[in-house]
Task: inverse folding
């Protein structure tokens, strides 16, 4: 649903975030949550939180997201290949930041709770 007061950029960013959430879910991530943190976070508009099934699957999701975004002219700010962690991987698209966790890290870092004031965005 588009809001009349949203700029084209805001609309495109929201659509990018929603499509990224769908891609994560379609790449076997579970508990995929998209948070609208505009006005709460000084650094990004949307946080995408997802739980992966294994380090290999988590890496695949990050690689697939980067490739998918690249086809749309969007490059990640960070290089996912530099990430050593097998428990928490991040892809920073600036306006949308994707966090892919294993189950233990998702619970431990509790970004869902930390950003509890954020609006959840329906993406399914």
Result:
């Amino acid at each position: 649903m588009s809001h009349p007061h949203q700029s084209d950029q805001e609309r495109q960013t929201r659509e990018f975030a929603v499509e990224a959430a769908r891609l994560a879910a379609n790449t076997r991530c579970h508990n995929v949550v998209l948070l609208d943190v505009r006005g709460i976070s000084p650094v990004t508009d949307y946080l995408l939180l997802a739980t992966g099934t294994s380090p290999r699957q988590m890496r695949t999701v990050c690689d697939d997201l980067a490739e998918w975004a690249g086809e749309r002219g969007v490059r990640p700010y960070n290089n996912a290949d530099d990430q050593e962690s097998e428990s928490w991987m991040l892809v920073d698209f600036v306006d949308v930041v994707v966090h892919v966790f294993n189950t233990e890290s998702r619970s431990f870092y509790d970004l869902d709770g930390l950003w509890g004031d954020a609006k959840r965005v329906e993406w399914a």
Summary: Strands lie at 30-36, 46-51, 88-92, 96-101, 119-120.
